[in-house]
Fold these 4 entries.
Entry 1:
Amino acid sequence: MSTAPWWSEAFGADYVDVYPQRDLASARAEAAFLVEQGLHGRVLDLCCGWGRHLVALADLGLDVAGLDWSAELLARLRSMPEAAPVADRVVRGDARRVPFRDATLDGVVSLFSSFGYFGDEGDQELLHGIARILVPGGLAFLDVMNPAFVRAGLVLESRTERGGALLVERRSLAGTFVRKEVELQRAGVPARTWREDVRMYEPAELDDRVRGAGFQVEARWGGFDGSPFTPASPRQLLRLRRAGS
Ligand SMILES: C[S@@+](CC[C@H](N)C(=O)[O-])C[C@H]1O[C@@H](n2cnc3c(N)ncnc32)[C@H](O)[C@@H]1O
């Protein structure tokens, strides 16, 4: 059994097939909302995946950069015609150690549960890293799960057939973590299995953590539709402002 951290193995080129709903069209709507809420200028998409939000934000006139750990997803990005405009704006790296100079970016986004992977210390390190590279008064948008929503609706097992592939997902809760064992079976290739193990943050705890990293919590929505956050909201989307002006 591999001793590598789960996040270094979970996100392969097949992410695009596993999550087809996380596409460029949805990214365009999400990016438009973020821009409406103040995102502007030089922006880093931390954990950018195959770059769908980078493309959408660049089309809205922002000066984008992306960082991701997955060599496979970055290769996929470089091979996808949709992502061609941002292919030279991405770098491979660890989200806890962002290779940008202090106070150089106007905005950082972390979208679709790309936070909660690294334990208490690592998650805090990541937040401090975001604060470090933002200009004083810069904005961060953090989009994570709403634990109450996850607990209320957890589907223990699902089997999805799509395009000749079978995706089996088994989910469980372990304290503050939501765990997923995934198997992807496709004709002609060996089945791929991986796990995901994401720490969920209650709103109050998340607020404490981001404040500890030097942010003010300016807004919390229940999703990219701008709905107010409630315990029934599918997501927690936070707008954070780095201290200073
Ligand atoms: C749930 S996906 C979200 C991707 C993208 N934000 C989106 O909305 O399509 C999480 C992403 O985090 C990346 N990731 C995981 N661990 C990382 C790390 N230590 N450093 C940088 N990226 C990481 C994965 O490769 C994956 O692309």
Entry 2:
Amino acid sequence: MLDIASGHPTIDLYLARSYERVRGMSSRFAAAICGHLIRRQSELGVGGELVEIGTFEGRFFIAMALGLAPGETALGIDRFDWPDAGIEGRFLSNCAAHGIARERFLSWKVDSREITSTKLGEKLHERPIRFVHIDSHHSRECLANDLELVTPVLHRDGIICLDDMLHPGYPLVISAVFEYFERRPEMRLLCVVDREDIVAAPKFLICRGDALALYEHDLLSAFSRFHFSLNADMETYMALVLTPRPRLAEVG
Ligand SMILES: C[S@@+](CC[C@H](N)C(=O)[O-])C[C@H]1O[C@@H](n2cnc3c(N)ncnc32)[C@H](O)[C@@H]1O
């Protein structure tokens, strides 16, 4: 098992003992890095709500929600219709089994394409989102929708985490991200979190350019042994790359 931790004791206990027993698709490597960022935000006083679009049975949602600061809540959005009608029940019982008190989170059974940012803001009692994981339908249309859905309600120092970027099974989806960067030049790719496996694929971490300083150096120093030293070439800037087993091609 890869030796990686978020530095948040409750999240780390869950990651070590239970994460892979909750059915789901996100890697423990990515969950530890995201848990670290959620902890970092709490330390910096970046307060707000934690949101996941596409909770499935709660594997990643639980890791996020264990990082809630006092007074915050988590919101899990899913159609809850796949692979069967029992999915929301399994999500709720997994949350209960892993210590997420019922009053600390909301479960919203809805298709993300049928809600607006205004409705989302109301659901969050007009509190900003400080961390959101987008992991719903892997199509350009749904990802573009979800990015535009969350951006107006994002905390100015908030982080958007995108699942299954550069996944061999969804080669076109990445174009929705680059179109988003063109529409929203204030947003930057903070970090590429590389895959553990084809079923635990890479994630992108995105934030406003002027929030980069809060996270970039901290991520690098916390996870230096996972740093791919060539980083990611975004043409006008370089973004951090963290990978479970960093190495370079041997050419000499
Ligand atoms: C890949 S699974 C999520 C895995 C989970 N985040 C994890 O890390 O274990 C995708 C989920 O997104 C949900 N979903 C797909 N399209 C959706 C949409 N437009 N709105 C809400 N949920 C959606 C599906 O029902 C499914 O539960």
Entry 3:
Amino acid sequence: MNQVPSSRQPKRVKAKFIGPFALVLAFIMCVFAVAIYGIEARIRDRDLAERSTAVANLFAQKLDKDTNLMMAAMRALMTNEAMERALRAGDRAGLARQGGELFARLRDDHRITHLYLTRPDFVTLYRFHSPDEHGDTIARVTLQQAHERQAAVHGLEMGAMGTLTLRLVMPWRRGDALLGYIEVGEEIEHMIDEIRRSLSVDILVLVDKRHLQEPQWRRGQDLMNRSGAWERFASHAVQAQTTERLPAALDDSLLAQLLAGRTAEIRDGGRSLHLAVVPVEDAGGVHIGDLVVMRDISALEATFQWSMAAVLLISLLVAGGVLGMFYLALDRVERDYRRQHDLEHQLLRLDTEHRRILQMEKLSALGTMVGGIAHQLNNPLVGVVNLAQLAERELGGNGQPGDPERTRELLREIRGAGEDCRAFVKRMLAFSKVSCFESKPTPMADLIEDTVLLFRQTESKHLPVEVRLSEPTAVLTVDPVLIRHALFNLLVNAAQATGDGGAIVITLEREADTVSGLPGWILAVSDHGRGMAPEVMEKIFVPFYTTRSDGTGLGLPVVQHVALLHEGQVTVSSEPGHGTRFAIWLPERHALPPDNEPAPT
Ligand SMILES: Nc1ncnc2c1ncn2[C@@H]1O[C@H](COP(=O)(O)OP(=O)(O)OP(=O)(O)O)[C@@H](O)[C@H]1O
Ligand SMILES: [Mg+2]
């Protein structure tokens, strides 16, 4: 059995594609995960940035709100005529009497910590929050600006002790006359607590040490009973804080980073903190300190991590699903591919087998042919040798008399055997000439008549031959010599198979090919002779196959060869004991119209 070459082994489709596909999928998944991480991180950063901005906005709002409150209180005070008279007269006792109660109410209800009345030359006339201190000159920015603009001015100011105070200063005028200045102030620490409560952030109030003297600052802390830290940072003093314990990671270097405008995330006792800074400027636009905003982002981080884990899990599931589906599809393709490959392989094997059988048939036919020739030549040659020996003996010698008459007879027989050989060789030569094919338009009625005439001359039984032509003028483009030869062979065979008296019938009629449906003609010879057994019929077209002692077995192979040369075919039907019909089918396309000039046969 033939082996299939190894290069034709089926390829492993799955192994070839699944790896690259998995890599591409993993890459897409990574890109997707990174994109989702980027989006999530941006959302988180924006949320954190908004919270820092919210602190700055809320702080500014609270400053505005308290300024408005102070403005209202100030205007209420300025409607007091008795107070105005006391201010004009520099009457400190009158001022205390008129404004003392209002200041006490403002201090208790609205955390107002400072209330001054100052003369137009900036000398303090009366400090409601510290009545004993007076007569000093105030040189604060807010008072200077109120003087220059002759309008209300407000803003943050840092005191010598580091306290941050919101101050509102307003000139007190009556007509064109400037009576002095009224100033209200409040410390802002309470705002920090309010912001912490509103926005859930811790705040650290830092004051730049360049604007402070340490001893004074410490005295202020003692006086106000505060627990600020001077040493914690090199550049800033901690003025106030909403949380008792500051994160250990918040050191000078981290603070420098925050002051440079960057944000930071640190771990502190199991919490994640996000840190940012909001600068604080005083009324004169001087950067006096900063608010460090600390937000606990542990929950935000947990949500972020959870959503990232969920995204990764879903991506993995989707990728797994896609990979699985792709695997199944590839599996199917591979199975189909293998099936097709097996089929091809099988066909190839069948083809090889078929060729081998054909080869064997050819060799067998050749063997039969050689055997046939040997047989045909051997019989007469054996006769020649034997007869020659006998003739030698009849010549006499060794004292024996010869018999010339017997010798002559033997020589005649030798010549007869030789002639048989020559006749056989002649037939062989005729057989080989069959392939010289030359077709031309031939009137079939004439051709058949000529052949029957020839047949009658050679046939001794004088069997009747009947010719039936469906179209007597039919002209077919055929090789007349070959067709005549084939018809003659069929007639001879029919005669040989028929006993005395049996008729032979020749027919010519139109008939399409049963397989291809092509139009054509059937030239048939029927007899009512002995017919053929099926096993004989199987072999009749094999050269040299014969059932007759004097036959060569070349008659029917010649008929078949002639039919094939005309692109036709020979069919046979036979019934043992009843007769045989040989039919040569010739295709129509060789035929010409009846009025064409026919070629002489
Ligand atoms: N009309 C027929 N009726 C019965 N048998 C036939 C008929 N024609 C052919 N045969 C059988 O077919 C065999 C082969 O015929 P074929 O013409 O090829 O050779 P042959 O007649 O035996 O010898 P050859 O024709 O060469 O002298 C014959 O020997 C015979 O047995
Ligand atoms: Mg014959």
Entry 4:
Amino acid sequence: MQLRKLLKLLIAGVSISSLAIAGCTTQRQFDTQSPATTSSTSVQSPQRQPDVPYVPTPQTVVDRMLTIAKVNKNDVLYDLGSGDGRIVITAAQKYGTRGVGIDINPERIKDANNNARQARATDLVEFRQQDLFQTDFSEATVVTLYLLPEVNLKLRPKLLKELKPGTRIVSHAFDMGDWQPERVEKVDGSTIYYWVVPDKAQ
Ligand SMILES: C[S@@+](CC[C@H](N)C(=O)[O-])C[C@H]1O[C@@H](n2cnc3c(N)ncnc32)[C@H](O)[C@@H]1O
């Protein structure tokens, strides 16, 4: 029993450090003018502990993820665990895409809203403080992820059940187990995975 507990803790520790390494090896400055940083005033706590720590995707990787998914102005993009909002805001700025960012941490939502205001993208983007496992993201035509391997795996059935066939999913750094991606690409030391939701009959 003790040994199993110890093993679980060890696995969680390794996953979190791999996320930090994936994020830090290629860290770049966020592109929008003067990005907002976390404010020290009126800090709220998340409704529960986040499943994943906050590590931003480098801007070069964000740009490539959007290119790989062929994001355009007719899409509705959901970033599940949206951090400072950079993926959703970049899609709005570059392609005129409507986007929704979901984050469980109110500080991240505050930062993302500030960044959206500074980027003058508030007419296209929206940030919701929600648990991504409780979120209805069925309207999405593109979903972006930068989570953890076990969180991707836990999310996979919900993605396959709720998303329309043809919806594109792009993940920074982590795959989805035995669901083979259609494309895998390396950018500045980061790996990007790309899937398309299959027809329900498959
Ligand atoms: C690694 S960061 C990625 C941020 C952003 N998507 C990016 O690529 O720059 C993961 C984010 O997921 C959020 N998060 C963790 N667990 C969550 C949950 N259950 N529901 C919603 N957001 C969550 C964290 O607060 C954090 O901001």
